[in-house]
Amino acid sequence: VDPSLDLIEEIQRLKKEKNAVILAHYYQDAEIQDLADYIGDSLGLSQQAAKTDADVIVFAGVHFMAETAKILSPSKKVLLPDLKAGCSLSDSCPPHLFAKFKEQYPDHLVITYVNCTAELKALSDIVCTSSNAVQIVESLPADQKIIFGPDRNLGDYVKKKTGRDLILWNGACMVHEIFSREKIENLRAEYPGAKFIAHPECEDHILAEADYIGSTSGMLKYTIEDEANTYIVATESGILHQMQKSSPHKTFIPAPPNNACACNDCPHMKLNTLEKLYNCMKYDQPEIILPEDVIVRAQKPIERMLEISA
Length: 310
Ligand code: 13P
Ligand code: SF4
Known about the structure:
Bound molecules: 1,3-dihydroxyacetonephosphate, iron/sulfur cluster
Distance between the termini: 42 Å
CATH architecture of the largest domain: 3-Layer(aba) Sandwich
Strand order of the largest sheet: 2-1-3-4
Radius of gyration: 19 Å
Number of helices: 15
Shape: globular
CATH class of the largest domain: Alpha Beta
C-alpha cells in the first residue's frame, strides 16, 4: 500500500463506490471499530448481515462470523480482510468428529454456539450466541434432550442457569481461559467499589466471582447503566474501547491473566488491520465462498435462532 494514502479516507471512498457495509466485532482494534457502520456482538452482527441492503458485506471479525453473514445473505459478496482470522474455539470442534459424537445421541437436539464452522452449523438444529443461549434452551420443552457444543464453559453456564442437563462438547476459547481468580480477587481488594464483569466463555470458577455475566453487548450495556465507577473486565480487550467511549469518566481494567506472558487479545481477531481492510475492499478479496448445500443446511438452524431471539 502506498504510504502516502490516507487509509481511512480511502476505505470510506471504497465503501460508497461499492455500496459496501462494514460490520465489526467489539474485539477489533479501535481504529477499525471507529470506521465501522455497525459494531456489535455475534447476535447483533448476524441480525445486521441478514437485513443489510448493501451489495458487499465487509466483515471485520473472524472467519465463522463472515461465514454466518454469507449463509444469511448468500447473494451478497462477503469479504474478510484476512482469511487466516480463525477461532480456537471453532478449531476445537472438527465437524467430522462432532458428527460421530452426535451419532451417539440420536434422540438429542443439537444446539451449537455460533463460534463454529459452517459445516458444524449444518449439523445442528439450532444455533445460539452468548446473548441468547439461555433463552433458546428455555424455549424448548423441559424434557427435551440436548447436545451443546463447542464451548463447554458457555454450556456449563447454560446448565446452571436453566437447570437442564446438557451433553457438552469439550471445547474452549483460548482467550477466555487465561484469567486468574486469585489475581482478580487481589484487584478487587485494591479497588473495593469495582464491579467484576465476565463473558460466559470464561471458566466456572471465574464466573462464580462475577457481578454480571453476558455477551460483549450485554457487558457494554451493563457498564453504561450501572452506577459503579470501576469495572474489571474478563473478556477480550477490544471491548474496552467502546466501554471507555460510552462512559469516559469510568475506569475499565482488563482482568489479569494467570500467566505474565498471556494477554487478553484474541490473536485471530487482531489479524485484521486497516491496511488489510483497505486491500480487501479495493480488490474484492479474500471473499467467503461456501458450498451451496452447506449454505442451505446451515441457514435453518441460524434462522431458527433469529426467530427465537426476535
Ligand atoms: P459475543 O460478542 O457474541 O459475546 O462473542 C464473543 C466472542 O468470543 C466472539 O468471538
Ligand atoms: Fe474465537 Fe475466542 Fe477469539 Fe472469540 S475470542 S474469536 S471465541 S478465539
